[in-house]
Amino acid sequence: MFRIQRTPYGGRGAFASQAIPEDTLIHTCPGPFAHLVYRAFRKEICAYCFVYAFDSGKSGWGVKIACDGDGSAKGGVWFCKEECRDRWEEEDNVDGMLMSAYDAIDREAKRLGKANEKGKGKDDGKPRSKIQELEKTIPKKGEAITQDLIDQAWKSAEAIAESRNHGEDMVAELHKSDVDVARFISTVLVHRYIEDNHPTPPPSPSTSPSTSKSPSPTPSLQSFSQSLPSSPPTSPSPSLKSFLPLPSPELSGNDWLAFLNLQNNELAHLQSIPAALCQALRVYLFTLQTLPPPLLQYLPGPGSDDPLIKYLPLSVRELQARDAGNSFGIWQQPSGGESEMFGWGIWVSASFFNHSCDPNVHKVRNGRIFEFYTSSDVEEGEELCISYGFIDDDLDVKERREGLKESWYFECECSRCLEEMREKENNRVAVQD
Ligand SMILES: [Zn+2]
Ligand SMILES: [Zn+2]
Questions:
Q1: In what residue span(s) does the SET domain sit (predicted)?
Q2: Which among 303, 329, 299 is positioned nearest to 316, based on CA atoms?
Q3: Does the residue 402 lie in any domain?
Q4: Which of 158, 217, 381, 392 qualifies as a FRET site for 314, CA 20 to 30 Å off?
C-alpha cells in the first residue's frame, strides 16, 4: 500500500504506492522496541498493554509475577489481567531477563540511596566517584557542546569502566529519573539478547494488510555489511559509519539494526539539553555496575571481549541518539488536552512516517501497538505524514515551527508551513507598501 523511499528534502518517508481511501488502516506497528513506564505509574499502568487502572475506576492493578518477601511485585511490574502478564512473560521477559534487570536496578538504586543517606553530613567536597569528576567537564546549558566533546566524554566513560577495580562503585549517587532511564535501556539490551538467543521472534499481534508480505529476517552482520549501499548516511554517528542506511528499508524491522537505521539526533539533542549527556554517561556506568552478566555483553567495557560485540556500537549512546526525535509518549487514552503521559517508547516503523502540519494519516495506540489510518483520501505517490504535535490553530506558523524544531530537531517545510509563511510575507510586504 505504501513504500519507504528517500524524500526530496533528505531522510526517508512513506509514500502511497496506490490511491488509498480515507479511514484505511495502512500500518500496524508491533510492540515497542524500547519503552519505559515511569516508576511512579508502575502500579497503575499495565506493563503489557499500558491500560490505566484509574480509567477503570481502580487505584492500581492487582496481577503480579510473584511477590518478594516484602510483598512488592517482582520486577516492579503490574498487569491489568493474567493474559497481559503471560504475554509480557513471553514477549518481553524471555528467560526472565527483563525481570532480573529491573530487579537488579531497583536493588542497586536502593543500596546507593541508603549509602548516601548514611554519608550525609560527612560531605568533604571530594568527588565520591569517577563519574562525578567526568561530569564536571560537561558544559552547562547555554555553553557550547561539540561532537568532539561528546566523543571524548564517551571515551572517558569507557575508560572509567575499563579501569574499574573489583566491587568499586563507578556511580555513587543517582539523580532523579536515572532509574527510569536505566529501565528504558534494559528493555533494549533485553531485545538484543532475545535477537541473539531466540532468533525467531515471538508471533506479532499485527494484522495489518501492509505486513502481509513475507517477513524479512534479521540480516546477519556479515551479509548486512556486504550489501551496504555506497550512499552516505544522512546523519552518521562516528561509530556507525558502516551501518547506515539499511540496504532496503522494510517496515517489518523491529530489531537492533532497524533501530540503528533511525535518524541520529545526538548533537542537536545534547546541544539543547547538555545535562542529558551527564545522565547518559551516569546511567551507562550505573547499568554496567548493576545488570546481570548476559546483558552486560551489550555494553562496552569489561565483559565485552567478543570482537563482534565490540564492533557493534554501544547501546546506551546509540539509544540516546535515537530516542531524541524518534520516540512517542505513552499517553492516557483517548489522548487529548487532559491526558497524562505515563512513559515513552520507540516503535521503530512508526518513525518512517514524517511530520506534516496538515497530516493525511493519524495514529491510534491500541494497547501496546500503534495503528495508522488515513485521515483523508490519498493519491498514489503522495507522502503519508502524521503529526508530531504543535499543529493546534492557537499557534501561528512561527511558533509552530519553533516548537517542532525544539522538540523534534527539524525545520518543518510542509505545504501548510510553506503556504502560511508565504501569506505572512505577503502581508508584511503589503503593510510596508
Ligand atoms: Zn493489560
Ligand atoms: Zn509544517
A1: 1-389
A2: 299
A3: yes
A4: 217
* CA 47 to centroid of ligand 1, rounded, Å: 7
Q: Quote the CA–CA distance of 2 and 139 in Å, as a whole number.
A: 44
Is 15 among the domain residues? yes
Q: Give tens-digit pLDDT for 390-420.
A: 888 888 999 999 999 888 888 999 999 999 9
The CATH number of residue 396's host domain is 2.170.270.10
Q: Which domain holds residue 13?
A: 2-30+347-432
Grid cell at residue 45: 499502568
Overall pTM surpassing 0.90 (yes/no): no
Ligand 2 mean position, distance from CA 416 (Å): 6
Q: Is residue 236 part of a domain?
A: no
Distance 283 CA to ligand 2 centre (A): 35
Is 188 within the bounds of a domain? no
Distance, CA 397 to ligand 2 centroid (Å)?
8
250 vs 198, residue with greater confidence: 198
C-alpha 359 – ligand 2 centre gap (Å): 9
Q: How high is the pLDDT of residue 281? A: 92
Ligand that comes closest to the CA of residue 61: 1
Task: Read off the pLDDT of residues 146-165 as tens digits, 9 standing for 90 and up.
Answer: 999 999 998 888 888 888 77
Maximum distance among all alpha carbons in the chain?
79
Q: Which residues pair with 79 in a beta bridge?
A: 63
State the helix-helix crossing angle for 147-162 and 275-288, rounded to 10 degrees: 20
Determine the distance separating the centroid of ligand 2 and the alpha carbon of 417, expressed in angstroms: 4
